[in-house]
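[stage:ingest] chain + small molecule (magnesium ion)
[stage:ingest] validated
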Amino acid sequence: MDTIADVWKEVLAVCSKKVSEPIYKMWIAPLELVKFEKNTFIFVIGSEFKKSIIMDQFSGIIKDAFEEVMGFPVEIDIFVNGAVTQEEEKKPETTDAKSDLGGGLRQYTFDNFIVGKSNNFAYNVSLGVAEHPGSLYNPLLIYGRSGLGKTHLLFAIYNRLKENNPDKVIIYVTGESFMNELVVDLKNHNTIAFHEKYRNVDALLVDDIQFIQRGASVQEEFFHTFNALEQAGKQIVITSDVPPREMEILDERLRTRFEMGIIADIQPPDIDTRKAIILRKCEQLDITLPDAVVDLIAQKIKNNVRQIEGTVKKISAMMNAYSRTVTVEQVQDIIKDITTDNQPTAVVVKKIIEFVAKSFGVTANDILSDNRQSNIALARQLCMYVIKEVTDLKLNEIGKYFNKNHSTVLHSIAQAKEKMDKNPSVKAAAVSAINEFQTKNN
Ligand code: ADP
Ligand code: MG
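[stage:predict] done
[stage:export] tokens:
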């Protein structure tokens, strides 16, 4: 137990045994530990409502758990993060003319999007689509890794389209819920409502299409929807976290169609863009950060704007709670868990294992054991795959962490890839782990 993060991990483990899993997941796990000061552990949470529930109902359990882990009683305190919380930010499943956007999404506008080399093309074609739907660039596919602004641009298009054409029907839908809706209707042999809904829109915006699972009937239906809309000159915009050629989920016909339209990729922002993003977020949160702090964040968090934003929000919550200032050291402490550069590879490997373990609901020890239970074995294979992608380790070096030889690692990685191809949620787990730890590209 070297850091407060270690303590918190143990406290979480104790709490998870004391309350039911849904309660734990909903009320305790989302607490973000900021620091320990004057015998008080300080957390940030997204809303006043959550804070009051946690303080009323669960602070006793949490404090007891701290005492169990630390050996002496401590206090806890929670601050509300002023900005939009993750929960509130959660995109609605579908959005159409009838339902208005939540407050959080209304701020996803073109004006709030910082443009740099890495996203300038995607920004411009998105703007083109929003101003001239169905004519300039159709279909438009935006792709880029997680946290680089795809959903932001899609909503900017949505917001602008609504603004210019209040009476038009514009649907925002995630690939996943599009698929779920369709699967239910196909099962009930009732695709009429589905056709009505999706073939009569003026613009269809599908976010994270990688979650549309393979399956002939879903593909078929998607293809027909796509065709019907395209022939009627309606705008289609799709986002994905992989380029079309790697979209194994799409059948060849669809892939070709996308390739005939416009494909815009978003790359991780360069340092100047990162700085501009930080400054814009500060402006929105009404805080001023010392130049050295802005530089530090911009230098350290390279591949994910969501993480940059999260860091600024955390700092803002801390500044509002304590003082109006923040030091480089404090910020170093806040970001050390999300940056992996400068860290020894062994630390990165350990973090990857912990990260993957968490997404599979197993422990790091399970992964490092010989347990062959299928979900543990899969988590282990995925770890090896992610480590191979993210670090420069050779197969035999990876093997050392798992007590396996070179050819076992090779085989495991092949297995991981196969399972990722078959199962989008496995793929999503791998993609999010890679995004979390990717540092090679910068
Ligand atoms: P993705 O959908 O690609 O995973 P999001 O669009 O959800 O990423 O972006 C993550 C967060 O980062 C959002 O809050 C978004 O507003 C912000 N963001 C991303 N790119 C930019 C940018 N260029 N300028 C301002 N904010 C950005
Ligand atoms: Mg997104």
